[in-house]
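User: I'm designing a mutation panel for LysR family transcriptional regulator ArgP and want to avoid disrupting the core. Could you give me a predicted structure to guide residue selection? Please restate the sequence first so the numbering is unambiguous.

Assistant: Good idea. Sequence first, for numbering, then the predicted structure tokens:
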Amino acid sequence: MSTYDPAALECLAAIVEEGGFERAAQRLNVTQSAVSQRLRALEAQVGSVLIVRSRPLRPTSAGQLLLKHTKQMRLLRADLERDLQELAPSAPGGSREDERISIAINADSIATWALGALHDLVRQRLPLEIIVDDQDFTQEWLRSGQVLGCVTTLKQALRGCKMVPLGAMPYVAVASASYAQQYLPQGLTPHNFREVSFLSFNRKDDMAAEFVARAFGLKRVALNHLFVPGSEAQMRAVAAGWAVGVMPELMARQALADGSMVDLAPGRSLPIQLYWHCWNLESELLDALSAALTGAAAQALVS
């Protein structure tokens, strides 16, 4: 098997992660010409194009394999760094900034339970990168080799990966007390949901439609949407009376308790089952990440 130059592999990763040659050069502190030369040398060694020069840039299938290999090497170096720190605490430590450990998590988990789970690891100087995407799409980041683990709604493990159930996150339909009184005094019903707007992250987000469909036994639902990208931003938008929000009960709990928000469909919730997927590797760091996330989920989510 060929031995690949670690600098060339990190160059490939930088191009993909930074989205271009110029930003990759800035991160690696080399010229843009040097980035191009390293990539060409790696492509010549592999015998295949590794980057599709599109907008945005994206790795080819061969590029994804090398990117995954590069991420795995970062993980091994991070494990070694931790072990050396335990043996020689006074030794200089800390991974380079460009050797980040990347995971993909959905925004609602970050806003509720997941961020706290990672606190101790970050305090240990883990060079963490959290990529945010819809929970139905985070697995694509793992599939492409750009992250080492993800929180997703998909149950089937990818080849070379392992899966752990985390629990269910219940979602409820809420609105500000004044909005509910003005537009939905009887709450949500099968007859009035088309008369109000619902918040969504983006056009991929079908949470609100799924909630309404399940709550009222409907097969297809068309809603009026306002697009607000961000869990905390959606909470502020609901509080300001913009629209109805289908939010994690964890986020809405305090506002429901103090009466500033109203549950528009009491007794109805949409449980979203979440799973942690990660590479099936022997790694103390990966095990620590998995333990932190599964432990926090056990405290916050519904079994």
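For picking mutation sites, this is relevant: The mean pLDDT is 90. The radius of gyration is 22 Å.
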